[in-house]
Every structure is written in C-alpha cells, then in structure tokens.
C-alpha cells in the first residue's frame, strides 16, 4: 500500500508588464514594469504573490529569484501552519529582501485560504465598514498630457505625482477640468519650506492629503510640517516596516503601508494595529503591479481609511484577473483566496 504525502511547492516566473503610459515620479520614469509572480501549490490548490523590480529599494529579478531559491527547501518542508507562523519561519532568511518575502507571504495566505475554502479577507475583515475608494494615479508629465490622462480616465479620486518647480501651477491647471478629489504625492522631493508654501495654496484646491513631501530621513522637517500643515501628512518612504510606525506617529498624521516594503499581509496587519493605537490615519498602497498584487492588497480594504490600488489599471495588458474597480469601488469576486488567477 502506498501513501502519497503532499508537499508545498514554490515556483517563480518573471514577466514584463508594458504600461499604458510612461509613468514618471520625482525619481525616475518607467515604461515597462518587471515583476516576478510566485506560485505556491499544495495538491490541487495554488496561491499567488508578486514582487516587483524597483531600483529605489534595490529589488531586482536576480535578487528575487535568488531569494526564492534560498528559502525553497524551508517552504517545501513546511506543514500547513497558520500564515502568521509561516511568516516567522521565512522572515529570518529574507531580512535583506522584503519584496520577495511579501510575494511568498501573499502566495501562502492565498493558498491557505483556498485550502480552507475561505475568502482571504474573511480572516480579518471588518464586515460593517464601508470600503474606501481607490485613487487613480497621474504621473508627472506636461500639464496637457496630465489633463489628457484625467479626461481619458474619469475617476472620483486622483493621486497627483509632483516634484517639479511648478507643482502648484500643475494642480491649479488640473483643477480646471475636474472636481474629483486630489491626493498629492511629492515622493520626498520638497523641502519643509517648499511644502509649507505649497500646502498653503493646495488647501484651497480640494486636496485630501499630502503624501511623503520630504526626504525619508528628514524627521525635523516633518515635525515642523505636522505642527503647521493644514492638510494631513501621510508617510510613505519614511514608513517601510513595523518598527517605523512609532517614529512616524510623532511626525506624521498617517502612514501608507506598502506590502512589498513591509514583507506582506502578515506584517501589514501588525502595522495597522500599531498605527491605530497611535490614532493615526491608515492607508495601504501599491507599486505598479498586476492584479495578483492588487488582489492581495485589496483584502485589507476594510481595515483602512484610504487605499491606493490602481497598479494594474496603469498597465497596457494585465497578466491576471481578480479584484477590479468600478469608478473607484472595489469589486470582489466570490471565489476563495484572493480570487486571483493567471490569464
């Protein structure tokens, strides 16, 4: 008599994702996004996670693939423990690569939920809360091109990327063609003095908040902004992992959690809990990624004040199907796990 014992298996595949438009922030321009999809299987069930290439965070295809190989034996020897325990087993091996840790953690959460025949968010969802709307991001470009992108994609909330010598002029010009809410993301490109001048003008232009106006380590400047700004200030580059939340609570009104920066859903849940203890606003955001990463991120929606989950909408062609959006509203599938599947 033969007894077949199933084991976890993990694989990774690299994809190139052409963007609908060239995407520019204060640091660089991207026309094609490289990403790695991690698949984790157990018998008939497969879960998916994603790690994007990002030069600012030293994330490369080679590094991601090397990290997968580093933990492959540990993963495939693991039993089907709770995802929070699984993360603790993997994290010590990937302290220098939280992008890959995120992909593995999300793939495992997705797999675990599918095996247990549950929707992923059911493990931590707040059913009674109205879900936040996602914004749609407009990258830095000529004013005419930025206007054209807004007109091409009518949406209730836009995130406007800034970091030029004429940022207020840009926002005033865009405001002439839409009444939608604006979220401003300077990607660490302003000084404290510039930020205060800009905020003084932006507060009259239906701007909801300012995201990461100063360099990530300019704590004194951020302290000044928190004291004087008439708009909420949200940390992004300054808040990467759980240990950053307490310091950010001193100088920001809120944080933007990126799953790839913090290492996945598991640590994101801890960051949300800690931020709430400090009475902070909580947002979760994305990189430019496929519907795999976006579907995992969206599972956290009911725990958030704001969400930035437009990554897959910026692509010319997606590689997956899952969560999608209608006029900012998150539309979930009734399928188990994160509901995502590769096309």
Structure described in brief:
The protein has two domains: 9-117, Enolase-like, N-terminal domain (Enolase-like, domain 1); 122-342, Enolase-like C-terminal domain (TIM Barrel, Alpha-Beta Barrel), CATH 3.20.20. The protein is built from eleven helices and 15 strands.
Roughly how much helix do the residues carry, as a percent range? 25-40%
Structural class: alpha/beta
| Tally of DSSP helical segments | 11
- Rg for CA atoms: 20 Å
Q: What is the CATH fold-level name of the largest domain?
A: TIM Barrel
Average residue-wise pLDDT: 95
Q: What's the end-to-end separation, in Å?
A: 39 Å
Describe the global form: globular
Please indicate the percent range of residues in DSSP E strands (runs of 2 or more): 15-25%
Count up the domains.
2
H-E string: EEEHHHEHEHEHEHEHEHHEHEEEEE
The top-level CATH class of the largest domain is Alpha Beta
- CATH H level, superfamily name of the largest domain: Enolase-like C-terminal domain
Task: Sketch the major β-sheet.
Answer: 8 strands, parallel
């Amino acid at each position: 008599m033969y007894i077949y014992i199933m084991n976890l298996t993990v694989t990774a595949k690299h994809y190139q994702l052409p963007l609908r438009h060239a995407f520019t922030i204060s640091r660089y321009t991207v026309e094609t996004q490289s990403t790695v999809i991690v698949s984790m299987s157990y018998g008939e069930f497969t879960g998916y996670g994603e790690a994007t290439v990002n030069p600012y965070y030293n994330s490369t295809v080679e590094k991601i693939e090397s990290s997968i190989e580093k933990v492959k034996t540990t993963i495939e020897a693991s039993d089907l423990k709770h995802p929070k325990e699984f993360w603790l087993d993997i994290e010590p091996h990937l302290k220098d690569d939280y992008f890959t840790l995120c992909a593995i953690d999300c793939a495992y959460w997705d797999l675990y939920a599918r095996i247990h025949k549950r929707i992923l968010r059911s493990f931590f969802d707040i059913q009674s809360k109205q879900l936040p709307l996602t914004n749609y991001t407009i990258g830095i470009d000529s004013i005419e091109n930025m206007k054209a992108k807004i007109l091409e994609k009518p949406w209730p909330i836009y995130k406007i990327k800034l970091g030029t010598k004429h940022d207020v002029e840009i926002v005033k010009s865009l405001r002439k063609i839409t009444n939608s809410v604006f979220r401003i993301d300077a990607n660490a490109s302003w000084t404290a003095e510039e930020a205060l001048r800009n905020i003084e003008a932006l507060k009259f232009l239906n701007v909801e908040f300012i995201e990461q106006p100063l360099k990530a380590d300019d704590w004194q400047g951020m302290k000044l902004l928190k004291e004087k700004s008439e708009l909420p200030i949200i940390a992004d580059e300054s808040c990467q992992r759980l240990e950053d939340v307490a310091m950010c609570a001193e100088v920001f009104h809120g944080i933007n959690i990126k799953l790839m920066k913090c290492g996945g859903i598991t640590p994101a849940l801890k960051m949300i809990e800690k931020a709430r203890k400090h009475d902070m606003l909580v947002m979760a955001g994305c990189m430019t990624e496929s519907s795999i990463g976006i579907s995992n991120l969206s599972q956290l929606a009911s725990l958030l004040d704001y969400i930035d989950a437009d990554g897959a909408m910026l692509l010319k062609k997606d590689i997956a199907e899952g969560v999608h959006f209608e006029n900012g509203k998150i539309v979930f599938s009734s399928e188990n796990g994160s509901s995502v599947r590769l096309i």
